Amino acid sequence: MKISLVWSNSRPILPNEVIIYSMLDIQSHNRFMQTALRLARRGFGKTWPNPTVGCVIVDTSEMHNKVIGLGFTQPSGSDHAECVAIKQALNRYGKDRLRGSTLYSSLEPCCHQGKTPPCTELIIKNGISTVVIGCKDPDSRVSGRGINELRESGINVIENVLREESEDLNAGFISRVKLGRPSVTMKVATSADGKIATYMDKSKWITSELARKRAHLMRSQHDALLVGIGTVLKDDPLLTCRLNGLENSSPIRVVIDTNLRINHSCNLMRTSGDVPTWIFTVGNKNDKPIAQLQQNGADVISVSADERGLVDLNEVLSILGNRGISRVLSEGGASLNSSLIKSNLVDKIAWFRSNKLIGSDGKSVFESIGVKDIDDMIDFKLTKRESVGNETLDRYRRMD
Hints:
Blueprint: E1 2-5, E2 17-20, H1 26-41, E3 54-59, E4 66-72, H2 81-93, H3 95-98, E5 102-105, H4 119-125, E6 130-133, H5 145-152, E7 156-158, H6 163-169, H7 171-179, E8 183-190, E9 195-197, H8 209-220, E10 224-228, H9 229-235, E11 252-256, H10 267-270, E12 277-282, H11 287-295, E13 299-303, H12 313-322, E14 327-330, H13 334-342, E15 348-353, E16 363-364, E17 380-388, E18 391-398
């Protein structure tokens, strides 16, 4: 990464270059951007189809660089992060305090009229002199145009501050825009030796209550929760977030059910009027069971079959992307886990491991994924390891 200190915004920005225009030092830029990123995470699972963005406004006229506005993206149709932060600063300090201030945004401010006005227009109108951006917005309606609009108005724009962290935070949105599908995080909970059930197919509970609460928190941070019909028939789950204060933060429940075997009286169907439930099946099904499921409040979506005659997962994720879903958490069993891995559709893995053993006769977290040679092994990088009580949560990222 190249870092340059310049006093004019007339020359083009080189790839991966951080341009510093203001009197704040690099450490300060990183610190305020870290705050913006922390704010952005508050919007996980709540802002789709919009990206989740954090914003910090700093009055740089004083030596201590006072924060005068904070914001993060509100649910779709409501204010974007920049608007929230600007309104807060106006309400608390007035417009005079905004003039000459520095605004930090984890994503390039939008410059198009959607459900809300352009954020660039509001930034320019209120006399903000410097805008620091984590990463560009890949949306073709923005994608550098917001930056150019700010610069053309005389605002200093600093790009690529904590770019990797900013892109990682909105990896799902970026994937949806660039690849046409949301990002997929596979959540698994296993024994220390990688088993999800005993040879008698008993799985409750391999991991602790603390780990299960952490998994519920993950649910609240995703737009959709993906399972296979095998999990539904075996466990009859609710697939909701049941943490105090987050009861209304359950993601959309997505079921892969090739032959429409779902029971009309199961927990998902009983609650489909309260929590959106989308069921993907192969086309040309009998209209009668579909009508019954729809009467219960479920959305039944027919898709193509893959080479094995099962629901085509690539098409499923494409449809989810078209519907605005950016972040998917998969909580399936060995069959769905293997199908997603073989289709190269898993971006991250969140792996809870207990400190107990089941043995070789237990049920593995994966079925066969067709690896013949060592060179064919599917490569994931361990990015973080943390303790959850006496257990471990490992986070992996796919190596492209």
